[in-house]
Every structure is written in structure tokens, then in C-alpha cells.
Amino acid sequence: MFSSKDAFKKHFLEKYEMMFGKSFEESTLSELYHTLGQMVREYVSHAWIETNERNRANQKKQVYYFSIEFLLGRLLGNNLLNLGIRDVVEEGLKDLGVHLTDVEEQEVDAGLGNGGLGRLAACFLDSLASLSLPGHGVGIRYKHGLFDQKIIDGYQVELPEQWLRNGNVWEIRKESQSVEVKFGGEVQVSYGNGRLMFHHVNAETVTAVPYDMPIIGYKNNTVNTLRLWSAEPTQFRPEKGDVMKYKRETEAISEFLYPDDSHIEGKILRLKQQYFLVSAGLKSIVSTYLKSNDHLRNFHHKVAIHVNDTHPVLAIPELMRILMDEYGMGWDEAWEITTNTISYTNHTTLSEALEKWPISIFKPLLPRIYMIVEEINERFCRSLWNRYPGDWKRIEEMAIIAHGVIKMAHLAIVGSHSVNGVAKIHTDILKKREMKLFYEYYPEKFNNKTNGITHRRWLLKANPNLAKTICDAIGDKWIANPQKLASLVPFAKDDSFKQKIYEVKQNNKRALAKRIKQMTGIVVDEQSMFDVQVKRLHAYKRQLLNILHIMYLYNRLHEDAKFSITPRTFIFGAKASPGYYYAKKIIKLINTLAAKVNGDPKTRDVLKVIFLENYRVSLAEEIIPAADVSEQISTASKEASGTGNMKFMMNGAITLGTLDGANIEILEEVGPNNIFTFGLTADQVLAYQKNGGYRAIEYYHHDKDLNQVIDQLINGFFPVPTHEFETIYDSLLVQNDEYFVLKDFRSYVRAHERVGAAYGDWDSWMEKSIINIAKSGHFSSDRTIQEYADEIWGITRSV
Ligand code: 26W
């Protein structure tokens, strides 16, 4: 049906009429989206079945990527691209008077994630499929993804997200493959067959129903599966009790995604979600495995399970439980299989994000799992005792259960064969600080896998004109092998190529300016430098540093007639966790500043501040290709990797960043002339934290520009009650500026001066931009995934 434009048109019109029972002339864009989506879904089913059959037949090892979040974004455009049918569809629709992009915009983002961790999982699925690797995702089918953000009077307001409202053309409900997950109840122990047997009784049962989504590889006939589980009431519920309450509580498990990014919420529902995911996921994997194998003794040779952060780490005790209680295996053998099956990635060192579950919540909800965790802990502590006899302090620090809580990261390290960080510096910090004692004990488990992003979505799809310009210069080999983008290096000195790259950027800026006008009513200067910071709102990411610098520019423009700047448009996008008071105040501050700056006749020609509401994957795809400058300004040591930084680089923006996360590796790739770095190093930050010695107030007193902007937070400079930004003011001066905003301020100002000057030199700026694109191949998630496949999972291509 996609073999030619005409074949497509014919099928499309037939399909439309079949689905909607009316003629094409009466169609709406939304209906056209559903028609096309349905056609594509049907079209992939053949390759999907074939991939599954191939996997069954060749009996190669499979990896299952367990993640509580998958931030997929829109799927239609990406699926058309990967299937290689985008042009046919675009042309066919054009004949019918329809723009494909208008149809694509009908799709609601699949927003089943908060930020970096969830988007990484989505990029990984794309790379697994595109590399023909047998790897699948396992997650939760939340009815509501991350909240929709509205800005009202400058404040963030959260609305429930409704991605399933009009159905989801990409999923297939597989009710017949449902499994049951048990909560609560008690464990009864009996003796039989020469061993202890454990029976979980009086439990509340929930039915987990899988919904499968196809994950389409790039032009390679591979269609992997993302299996999302939905919680439903069990049909034959033996227990009595309040049926309505049971229904409500059951459905609540997959009702909504927790909107927390880097902050744990010790809610029982969250723990239920975690166990629901791993128990359902494992049961289905084990039953698939047993269709082609008589026993589970070689499970780890054929199955790898990856846990994305600690959220799915109950996979460890759950797999132990299945092997022992359901299949009668002894502890040692089950442990050998489990630890060899499971691998774990850590995504943050922020202490407030490290999961610890109180026993008081955990034990009643998961009594048998708790017993197993206790046993793992006891055996682990015993082995520590053998290695470090008498070193109680160390054992206490390393224990999985201590002081009434279960430390999920400890469980993850002990129960897996691989522990990795997501950028070199992050892995180093894990080894020498956060997980130092574990690294001493298990050095062989630790390794680094620097993150990556899929160049298919973030370059080919989001920036088609750039992709074409690259192909015109160096051919298209880089699409299959992104490291070949390096062939662009010589073109960094080629004037006509620079001109073309410039024109692509200008067109993208024009398109974004249009979107900005449509969303905010504000007209921005397309010639100005687009300086962008889009990411979750968090104190450590220091949107505040960016704001204070803009306030500084504003002040200088007002006070110093000789002061001039490269015209700049500062663009922000960020969601704050609904309970994160401070982050929400920063959003209000950005919007308050925007109103002031944009309305000021003296500055508005050279300075604009834009806050784009509801930042999400689809909006990122419009913003990133239009950026000149990429703000990656976290306090060094705090951002584990960052992945936005890679997306900007790949689209020709220059990074203005701290020596944090993967910024350091970007610097290594592009060299110091093609990135602007500033601020404290991670070692300096860590030293301050260890030894003290930082006094923010001194910077406030000694730097008059800084003094002025900080005072302006509370002195009536902004037309808001003076207490509005007091919390922010206090965080800097009363609480001694935990994130070193004041310390890095001057260095940031100077870095901005260098950026402004460099932007004024067109030739050298274009050179930098091209070098960034050329060196971005290293940050394709294809590279990352190949490393995981070779060094952690031991999987190989299925064809
Ligand atoms: C339990 C609450 C919670 C929720 C999410 C704690 C922690 C998280 C994530 C680990 C936060 C996260 O998304 N981390 C980001 O992971 C990205 C992918 O590896 C990195 O690029 C980011 O630097 C890191 O902040």
C-alpha cells in the first residue's frame, strides 16, 4: 500500500471511508491522522510477526529494558521515516491537498516520562531496533502521562494529560497474555520435597494486561516490541469485600506517571507501580522462555534484563521468587541465574533521588519479596564480614537494609553483574564517592556507558534540511554509521557549505519564531542569537544563573550608554515537579522577567525572553534545530550526563556549559575552540562540599553587578509583591547558595561575552557549528547501545 504514490492514495482514501463512514471531502485532520496511523500499524504487522518468529527460531539472547518511564513523543513521523515511506506518503497527501506535517501534529505525544531518563529509554529502543538487536522495552501503560503545563499569570498550572483520549493507534491489547500480580497477604511456610516451601496467601490479585507497541528499526525489517502493562481488576476475584474500592485501587496502579524528577516520593502507590511492572514483565518473559526451553537453568544465557535506575530493581527479588517458589530451584542456583541476568544503570548522584523504602511500607505490601530481600541482605552482610572482619561501620554503610529502610541502589549493585554510570565523570564520581565501598568490593561490576541520542529522530526527522545538506556534501553513509559525520570536518572551512548550513539554521529560526508568535504573541528578531535552555526545572540545573545574567544585561543596557550586546533571544522551556515549590518560583521569575524585558522600549530590540509552556518531546523537535547556543550550566558534578546537550550539538548549536556530565566529553570531541566552558570543576565543588569554605555572601558583597541583581529579586524592581521571590533570595544568601550560582556568576558573564563576540564573527561561528555537527556522531545512541550489547548484555544482531 506504500509502494507508490498512487497506490498509497488509493488505499488511504479507501481506508478513510472504511474507518469513518464518510467521504474524504468531509474529513478532519485528526481523522486523517488516525487513518494514516492505522495504515502504518497494519503495514508493520508483517515485519513485526517476522521479527518475533526470527527471534523464536534463532534462539539468540534477548534483552529486556525495564523502565518505569518511556518518553516516546510522537510516533507517526518517526515510523514513516524508519519504514522508508515518508516521501511516498508526503507526496500522496500533497496530491490530496494535505500537508503531512499538519497530520503529524494531530498526534498527542506519548509522554510516559519525566525527562532525561525516560527519553534515554526511548532513544535506546530506537537504536536497538535500528541495529537489528533483539531488545524490547517493558514499562507501564499510564493512562495519564506527565501533566500538561499551562502558564497562568506567570505561574505553572498542571492539567491532567490525556494521551489516550482518542485511542492509541500504535498499541495492540494482548488480553490473552495477561498475568496476575499479587500484593499484601501473608507468607505460609511448609515442608515438602525435602525443602521449605513458601506460599503467598490471602493476597490481593491484580490483572496485568499487556499492550504491545511496535518499535520500528530504520529500514531493516526489524520490529521490536515495547510492552506496556495496564492494571485491571481480576475477573474471578475470590475474596469478598468492597468491589468498587478494589476496582479503584487496582486501576490506580497504572493511572498516572509520578511527575517527580530526581526526588523520591515514598508513596505506597509508587512502590506498587514498581512491583507491578517487574512482576508482570518477568512472568511474561519466563513464560515465553519456557515455550522453547524445558527448564530455567540456562535462563541467563538467553535473557538479559536491564533495570533503568533503581525503579525496577525489584526484578532481582522477584526473579529469585519465581525461580525458587514457582520452579523449585535452590537459593544458590537461583542467585547465580539472577545476578547474571540483571544489569543496572545509575542516573543520578543526587541524594534526594536515591530510593529508600521504609520497611513499614514495603513488608506489608510485598511480604514474600521482603523475605527474599532480607535473605539477600543477610548473605551479603555475611560475605562482607568475611572480607572485612570487625569492620561494623563499613558493613552498616553497605547493608541493603539498615535503620528501617531498604536501599534500592545497594540491592541493585549486589543483585546484578553490571553497574554503569551515564558519562565518564559520573561513573568516576560513583566509583570514588557515592559507591566507593561497593567499587572496592566489586570493582569488576563497574563500567561507564556514556549516553547517546538517536540521530534518526533528532537530526533526520527534526531537522530534515540539515540532514539533506549533510547528504549533499558527504553522501548518506552517516545515516547507518553516524560516526561518519566526521567527514564533514573539512567542510568547516568551506564557504559555500557554511552558507548552506547558515541558511538551514535561519529557516529553522524563522519557523520557531513563528511558533513563538503563535504561542506567546511575541515577535522575536530572527537575526538575533537564539540562546536556549530547555530541560526540567531543577535548582541544580541553574536556570537561575541564566536569569540573573539576563537581569545583569538588562541593567547594563539601562545604565551604561556605551554598553552594547549581540541581540539575543533567550528561550526557556521547563516543567517543575508539582510539589517543588522552589522550582515553581523560578518559573514565575522567568515569566516576570520576560514581561519586564520584552515590554521595555529601551531593551526590547536587543533582548527578548521567551518561556514556552508545556515543554515536551514534540516541542523540543521544533526548538533544538533553531538554537544557536545551548545552555548546559548545571553545577559541576550534579548532572549525571545530560542528553539535551547532545541534541543541540548535533543540530549545530554551540554549547555554553560547565564541566559537568557529558559536556566534558563534548569538549573532548570538539576541542576548546568549539565550546564555551566556565565555572567550578566537579572536583572543586566536591572539595567545597567536603571541607566547607564557600561563603556566598562574600560574592554578593564584592561583586556590585551581582549585588544589584540579587537585590532586585526583592526590592520592587519587579511589579510583584516583594515577598514573591524571597525564597529564591534566601536560597542564595541565607542558605549559602547550595548550587554555587554566585560563585560561578562572573565566570558565566565572561563566557557569555566570549559567546557574543564569537557570534559576531560569522565565519568562525559557522566553523564551530559545523565542527559540532561533525563530531556529534559519537553521541548517537547507536554507539551507546552497541557498547551495552557487547559489554553488558552479550547480545548480537538477530540477522
Ligand atoms: C524516584 C524519583 C526519581 C525520578 C527520576 C529519581 C530519579 C529520577 C531520574 C534518575 C532522574 C533523571 O532523569 N536523571 C537523568 O538521567 C539522564 C539519562 O541518563 C541523564 O542524562 C541526566 O543527567 C540525569 O539527570
From TrEMBL:
Keywords: Allosteric enzyme, Carbohydrate metabolism, Glycosyltransferase, Pyridoxal phosphate, Transferase. GO terms for cellular component: cytoplasm. InterPro entries: Glycg_phsphrylas (IPR011833), Glyco_trans_35 (IPR000811), Pyridoxal_P_attach_site (IPR035090). Gene3D superfamilies: Glycogen Phosphorylase B (3.40.50.2000). It comes from the Bacteria. GO terms for biological process: glycogen catabolic process. Coiled coil: none annotated. One of its GO terms (molecular function) is pyridoxal phosphate binding. Phosphorylase is an important allosteric enzyme in carbohydrate metabolism. Enzymes from different sources differ in their regulatory mechanisms and in their natural substrates. However, all known phosphorylases share catalytic and structural properties. This is Alpha-1,4 glucan phosphorylase. The lineage of its organism: Bacteria, Bacillati, Bacillota, Bacilli, Bacillales.
